[in-house]
Design a protein that fits this description.
The protein is α+β, with helices and mostly antiparallel strands. It has a single domain, classed as Glutaredoxin, CATH 3.40.30. The chain is 32% helix and 24% strand. It is built from two helices and four strands, in the order βαβββα. Strands 2-1-3-4 form a four-stranded mixed β-sheet. The protein binds FE2/S2 (inorganic) cluster (FES).
Length: 98
Amino acid sequence: MEEIESKQSNAPKLKAQLFICITCGSKPEEAALLRSELKNHCREVYGKDKVRVTASKCLGQCQEAISAVMYPSGTWYAHLKPSDKQFLLSEIEKETKK
Ligand code: FES
């Protein structure tokens, strides 16, 4: 019997990862900007080995506004707007403490 090769990687174990759909809504550039601002903030506060804010294409939860999902909790967010930046930062902070 062949030995099963490990497929695990040495990627860092993240405290939180927020995937933001950057193709949602009538102004996808707003979603991309929101993601960029969150990413830059989180990189400064947490470093890239603890929290990531990742751009995603369709997450299968299309809304008229921006959709996102947080891991590891699997919490979904819908109807987001660029003005929800502080809300999402507080959600990320909560996720890191779970
Ligand atoms: S286009 Fe954003 S979730 Fe589908």
